[in-house]
């Protein structure tokens, strides 16, 4: 598992998520129709149409509670789907959390890629990941992806009309997804805003039974993340625990620091 920094470009879905967080105050983004090689042209047109429609609704001032970008009729056939039935060249996407800071809008987004069943599927998946700007945690050979699930957790930030920036928080490629139990907790920290050196964002995994996480900050304050009800669209908040689609073995939480302080520790408190 890594928590290296990086910039991800060309992610239209994350940019739309930022707009939705700012205009509609809640986000729930569904699977994006990333094109397969043979069906690329038609499916890319479908994605551009969907993204344009959502952006137009936001700009017009409409309230959008939940958005799912659907593939067109030329969707992946069962033979093109990975071990879990999900197309291998499309990530399953969720928004972990969102909010505002320093006049900009931020969000934490998860993308989970299903395990390819053979080398052909693995090659297609690696190409699709590259289109998103992702590099899986492997030796670099597509064969390393066979039978393994990949996930990427990133922080997006946009201020005004400027281009969004993206920073990788955590990623891994594994035969079995992490399965924390009891009060076990895995935490990754990053600055909440670009240019800040303070580790003011804590993101992590906890057991599906955990109902509360308390984050401690260096200035002595604490932030409490409570388990959100199932199927609840995300809304701007300082902390929460929620389900990530495609990641059934754990829940993910985040805590945003109050003010300019930095992360000290976190624990499961309920």
Roughly how much helix do the residues carry, as a percent range? Answer: 10-25%
Strand content: 25-35%
Tally of separate domains: 1
Radius of gyration: 18 Å
Helix count, per DSSP? 3
Identify low-pLDDT runs.
3-80
Features:
alpha+beta; single chain; 270 residues; disordered N terminus; 3 helices; 11 strands; four-stranded antiparallel sheet; 30% strand
Give the SSE map.
Elements: H1 12-23, H2 40-59, E1 92-101, E2 104-113, H3 119-132, E3 149-159, E4 165-174, E5 185-190, E6 201-206, E7 212-217, E8 222-226, E9 239-242, E10 251-256, E11 263-268
Antiparallel strand pairs: 1-2, 2-3, 3-4, 5-6, 6-10, 7-8, 7-11, 9-10
Helix pairs in contact: 1-2
Region (Disordered): 75-109
Transmembrane segments: 49-70
Keywords: Membrane, Transmembrane, Transmembrane helix
Question: What's the short story on this structure?
Answer:
Helices cover 17% and strands 30% of the residues. The chain is of the alpha+beta class.
What would your notes on this structure say?
With 270 residues, the chain is of the alpha+beta class. It has one domain (12-268). The chain is built from three helices and eleven strands. The chain has a four-stranded antiparallel beta sheet, covered by helices on one side. Helix 1 (12-23) packs parallel to helix 2 (40-59). It starts with 11 loop residues before the first helix and ends with a strand. The model is unreliable at 3-80 (pLDDT under 50).
């Amino acid at each position: 598992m890594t928590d290296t920094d990086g910039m991800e470009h060309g992610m239209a879905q994350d940019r739309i998520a930022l707009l939705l967080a700012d205009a509609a105050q809640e986000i729930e983004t569904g699977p994006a129709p990333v094109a397969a090689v043979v069906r690329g042209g038609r499916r890319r047109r479908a994605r551009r149409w969907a993204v344009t429609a959502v952006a137009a609704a936001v700009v017009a001032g409409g309230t959008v509670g939940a958005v799912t970008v659907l593939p067109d009729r030329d969707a992946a056939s069962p033979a093109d789907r990975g071990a879990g039935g999900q197309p291998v060249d499309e990530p399953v996407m969720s928004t972990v959390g969102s909010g505002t800071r320093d006049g900009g809008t931020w969000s934490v987004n998860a993308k989970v890629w299903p395990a390819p069943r053979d080398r052909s599927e693995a090659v297609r998946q690696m190409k699709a990941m590259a289109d998103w700007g992702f590099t899986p945690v492997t030796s670099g050979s597509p064969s390393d992806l066979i039978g393994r699930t990949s996930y990427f957790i990133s922080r997006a930030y946009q201020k005004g009309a400027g281009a969004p920036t993206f920073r990788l928080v955590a990623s891994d490629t594994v035969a079995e997804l992490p399965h924390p139990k009891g009060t076990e907790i895995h935490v990754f920290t990053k600055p909440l805003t670009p240019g800040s050196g303070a580790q003011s964002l804590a993101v992590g995994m906890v057991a599906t039974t955990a109902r509360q996480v308390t984050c401690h900050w260096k200035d002595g304050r604490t932030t409490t993340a409570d388990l959100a009800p199932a199927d609840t669209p995300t809304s701007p908040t300082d902390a929460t625990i929620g389900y990530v689609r495609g990641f059934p073995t754990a829940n993910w939480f985040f805590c945003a620091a109050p003010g300019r302080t930095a992360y000290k520790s976190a624990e499961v408190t309920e």
